[in-house]
Amino acid sequence: MYNEAMHAMGVEPSVIRELFAYGAKRKAEIGEDRVFDFSIGNPSVPAPVSVGRALEELAKLPPAQVHAYTQSAGDPTVRTAIAENLNARFGTDYTAANLYLTCGAAASLSISLKAVLEGSEEVAVVAPFFPEYRTWIDSHGGVLVSVHARESDFQIDLDAMDAAIGPRTKAVIINSPNNPVGTVYSRENLEGLARILERKQAEYGTAIFLISDEPYRELVYDGLEVPWVPDIYGNTIVCYSWSKSLSLPGERVGYILVPQSVADWENVYFAIAGAGRALGFVCAPAVFQQVIARCVNEPADIAAYERNRELLTSMLDDLGYDYIAPQGAFYLWMRSLEPDAKAFSDRAKAHELLLVASDSFGVEGWARLGYCISPETIMNSRDAFAALKAEY
Ligand code: PLP
To answer: Within 10 Å of residue 216's Cβ, how many Cβ atoms?
Structure first.
């Protein structure tokens, strides 16, 4: 009657969404300010005023012009504006021909995986990883190979990656700044990965794509460098969205970049266009393409996240929690107070603290705290965190 695999995916709730829905219900029951919801990555910073201005401007144009289909890959003038922004920042020479506009990073990843995977090829991901990677890899016939991050600092474990990559590896997905850990991969770490991938490509005579999932690229603290990955490894496909940097997650707009450094890049780009077509991801939302053309040079506003990071880390330090110091994005990776992270998350729930257990990110014993929330929620959660700690 229907596709069993798709049905199973529809029935099985995402742990994050489930917790978020529970939080909404609980807030209605006991009051918004009594639930400490660290569950989801919905930006708390409003979109810049220039987005509102662009929308007002667009509302005055002839509707037939504003709402019309664009090219499947996106309006060429919009793609040119994005290419120019990247060229100014990274000293590159991209044009509209390198860019395919999408409905957010989710579509960028799904399209890129469908474009490169043939048969049951392997995709290595760094664990803990964004749970939807499994959904997209599985549904495009690939096999997820989970490679645990380095224990000490959650950078890529190069020895483990070396051991995991074989003749069937088609792609490696990295995400920096990282969800769920908040780490930013150093240049040295990425150069080490590039050396492994180049050696493996030569050894097996295959192409191994590095898919760089970057929706948090601009959300980085203390002036830390987020290296431009295609400069380090040529066969890199960049997946991006403005969901986090411009706080536009509901508008579904992002891109795939296939740089000239990708081997046979024009044909890889055609495969991206074909996969976009096959998945029905053609012509990203037209109004927001135009908004992006007007706001692409707008800086991300990280001040609020920076302040929240400070509030949260000093509170957790005071209370004696163990965590990985976040370098970017708006997540903190905290060690669970018992080996079973799900049980820990359930105990936290009893204190109205909503923390995502690490199991859904492919590892055990940790919890993710999203701090893209109001500073008051963080400050008011202190007693709950203290009570939770006291239980152990
Ligand atoms: N990749 C990572 C690591 C994410 O955290 C997210 C969203 O939270 C996505 C991809 C999907 O982004 P988008 O909302 O732009 O589709």
So the answer is: 27
Size of the chain in residues: 392
Asked if domains 4-47+301-390 and 50-295 share a fold, the reply is: no
CB distance 312 to 320 below 8 Å: no
- What is the tens place of the pLDDT at every residue in 202-220? 999 999 999 999 999 999 9
Give pTM, 2 decimals: 0.97
157 contact partners, CB below 8 Å, separation of at least 6: 126, 147, 148, 149, 150, 151
Which residues are within 8 A (CB) of 225 and not within 5 positions of it... i.e. 6 or more apart? Answer: 184, 186, 187
Class of the CATH-defined domain 4-47+301-390: alpha beta
Atom of ligand 1 lying closest to residue 253 CA: 15
Distance of alpha carbon 208 from the chain centroid? 21
Q: Which sequence spans correspond to the domains of the chain?
A: 4-47+301-390, 50-295
pLDDT of the residue at 41: 87
Helix 265-278 with 104-116: angle, nearest 10 deg:
120
Ligand 1 atom with the shortest distance to the CA of 109: 10
Q: How far is the CA of 1 from the centre of ligand 1 (A)?
A: 32
DSSP type of residue 60: T
C-alpha dihedral, 9 to 13 to 16 to 21, nearest 10°: 140
Q: Report the separation in Å between the CA atom of 204 and the middle of ligand 1, taken as the mean of its atom positions.
A: 32
Nearest-angstrom CA–CA distance, 290 and 75: 8
Measure 387 CA to ligand 1 centroid, in angstroms: 33
Nearest alpha-carbon partner for 269 in 387, 115, 160: 115
User: What's the pLDDT tens digit per position in 19-50?
Assistant: 888 999 999 999 999 999 999 889 999 999 99
Atom in ligand 1 nearest the alpha carbon of residue 41: 8
Which residues on adjacent β-strands are paired with residue 20? none
Nearest residue (CA) to ligand 1, atom 5: 179
- Give me the torsion for CA of 97, 101, 106, 110, rounded to 10°: -50
Architecture of domain 50-295: 3-Layer(aba) Sandwich (3.40)
The per-residue pLDDT for range 293-321, each reduced to its tens digit, is: 999 999 999 999 999 999 999 999 999 99
Rounded to the nearest angstrom, the distance between the alpha carbon of 63 and the centre of ligand 1 is 30
Q: Which residues contact 85 (CB under 8 A, 6 or more apart)?
A: 296, 297
